[in-house]
Structure formats: structure tokens, C-alpha cells
# Entry
Amino acid sequence: MKDNLSIESIAIVEDDARVHSLLSEEIYLNLKVKDLYVFEDGKIALKELTRVPVDIALFDINLPGMNGIECIQKLKILHPKMQIIVLTVYDNPEVIFNALKAGATGYLLKSTPSEKIIEAIQEVKNGGSPISSTIARKVIEAFCVREKTNEYFQELSNREKEILEHLNKGYRYKEIADKLFLSIDTIRTHVRNIYEKLQVNSRVEALKKTGFL
# Structure
């Protein structure tokens, strides 16, 4: 039986046909939706949702054409009332924070059971901000890391802090670039700036000076 909650329009922005087909089926079975749109390309989604905004959009992050975070940011500027739930495999804090800063109302992992995704859509419609419990834990842990670091760490920019946290976890420049959707040259520039600000010459010295080691 369909839920009593009625939603005028929903969009699914997901390039995996299996995933968006299952989501579409669950939405039609459990919610009263007048219009349901599916987009497999971020750039196309931005164009169409700019022209015809929806009430709620489910967004993957890694999309062809344009990544989900950039698309969300642009859409929220144009249509601030559009509610957006990120549905992705990415669970690292930097991506989570970037998605929420871009304007996402909720953040779920693709491993979330379908009934919980339906509940999240209902929650957003009712003014809530659903976040997977594992994602909430990641956010709390990230704040704890920030609290433990010292005044040198606090003097860095937010992006420099993100990169230094990744360096602390042992990630290589290419891995950090992929996680933050930046070029490897941009990462190298940020690292040089970090070293200059801290007056150090290596990753280990930077981590020691900022309280990670």
C-alpha cells in the first residue's frame, strides 16, 4: 500500500541503470509521486532540473558529465527549496562535508535498505535531514580529530586541513586528488603551501607540528 504522503516530483540522478531502476520501482510502489525523472549524466541533470525543478532529488556523486557535488551546489543556488539527498558509496568525511556544504539535505550510503531510503524521502518531505548512522559516526570522528589538533593546524585553510588529514591516513597525492575531486597538481600546490605555512620540509614534520603524531 502506498504511503499517504504525496510528493509532486522526484528526480534520481544515478548512472548505474540497475540502481536507478530499483529505486524507481521502490518509489512507485511506496510513495504517491506525480512525476519521476531519471538522469544518468550530471550535466544533463543540471540543465533539465534548472529548467524544471523537482521537490526532491536523489544524487549520486561520481557521475559522468559533472560530479554530483558540483551539480548540487549549482542547483541549490538556482532552486534553494529543492531538497537533495546524496545516495553514494563514498563515506569519507571530506566528501560528506563537501556535499552538505553544497546544499545536500541528507546523506545515505547505497548499502542502505530500500525501505530506509523511502523513509528518508518521507523525512526530507517532512522537514528532516536523514543521515546514515555510519555517516553520522564518520562526521563525529572527523570533528574529534579537529579538536585534538593544535594551533598550527587551526591556522591552515579548510582545504589544507582536509589534505593534511588525508596525509595523516597515509594516502598518496593521486588518491587524495581522487577523493577531493581535484587535480594532482592542485594537491601538490596545497601541500607546498602547508609546508611553507608550517615551515617544515616533509609530511612527517608537518604531521608532528600540527599534533597528528
About this structure: The chain has a mean pLDDT of 89. The chain has two domains: 6-136, 149-209. The first helix runs from residue 17 to 30.
